[in-house]
Amino acid sequence: ARETYVAARPKSAAIHAKAREVMPGGNTRTVLFYTPFPTAMVRGEGTTVWDADGHAYLDLCGEYSAGLFGHSEKRILDAVKAAMDRGINLAAVGEKEGMLAALICGRFPSVEQVRFTNSGTEANIMALAGARGFTGRTEVMAFRGGYHGGVFTFPVGVPVSAVNLPIPMRFADYNDPAGAAAAIREAGDKLAAVIVEPMQGSGGCIPATREFLQALRDATAETGALLIFDEVMTSRHGYGGLQQRMGITPDMTTFGKYMAGGMSFGAFGGRRDVMAVFDGHKPGALPHAGTFNNNVLSMAAGCVAMGEIFDEAAAEAHFARGERLRAALNAVCAKHGLAMHFTGAGSMLNPHFRAGPVTAPYKAAPAEEQMRELFFFDMLAAGIYLARRGMAALMLPTTDADCDRFVAAVEEFCAARKPVLT
Ligand code: PMP
After folding, report:
1. Are residues 54 and 115 part of one domain?
2. Is residue 378 domain-shared with residue 247, that is, in the same domain?
3. Which of helix, strand or coil describes residue 164?
4. Do both 282 and 370 map to the same domain?
5. Which cofactors, by name (predicted)?
């Protein structure tokens, strides 16, 4: 399989070889690295991407959830082009940022005020800075298996002492309501914030239980720590995010990914009294700088993406399509009696090469890692592009026929790999 992969991709191989000279590992994004060399993509249209060697793929990776609108949504392209025609860097506030802020505040229950950044990582950094400023406390609690950006990567099985962060951190186990509540109470008035993904995305598309989120809500309310939902990935799971679907309102929420139509984006928002720590009208306001925070391309695309395209009906239909797809995939796994199943919520899903259910993140065994690798390369060979870990993040233009094609490819994988999987 490896030989076939290499033989079919001379141009990707050459791109990698050149890049390796001047970038460590030949790329600038850890998630895109895999051996022997990653497939280089050169073009996208709708739900199709083409690699440098001319192969076409059904794009189910969806730019790790930032590609919600597909590669050629005309309204977004028009908005970006119109913004470009008026000048890209204006070094000033503009009208669009207030419009996009109003759209976001209007739909997420926890967000009374919001500010923009360039990425989800920065949004989390700023939300934590805000929480620390507001509470006057220093420590932050996160969960094993969580991911909140490049500097906030907390894989299961990595000693906490190895996490090199400028913020003093505490960790608890995901989906363990009693354990997390006890840890929050123990931290008491040292704890400024608890940050949690309502579905762990990078950790394997593992949704939080309602009971777990409620325990975090109750315990933080008791101790005065702020509860921050990282909805960088999950805000697509409902018109008002996963928080609205779960019926739990955090104090702050962070966003990113698809919200600016695919342009670079991040945002953090929350209660008006908390966000007031950034209010420049007040003496001693916390600084929040960033040359590209309100860049006109992201602001213009965001207004169209959130104001015109991803409305309530679109959000619900998209969530439902993903639920149907996951059910169909799991029916295939069950039919073949494999130790394999898909977790997730709505339009995002992830395979696990073990018997279900998976309700908490885990350190995969070498055999599981091997299956994950096989799955990714088998899907590529079948013309389906996923995240390397197998995650899919459906785009709005993804059709039922696209989903059927994925299910058929997974069925073939199950049949072919049955001897190793059972
Ligand atoms: N939080 C979560 C939950 C994410 O999934 C990601 C990105 N995968 C981030 C934060 C970081 O966002 P960005 O890559 O835009 O910095």
Report:
1. no
2. no
3. coil
4. no
5. pyridoxal 5'-phosphate
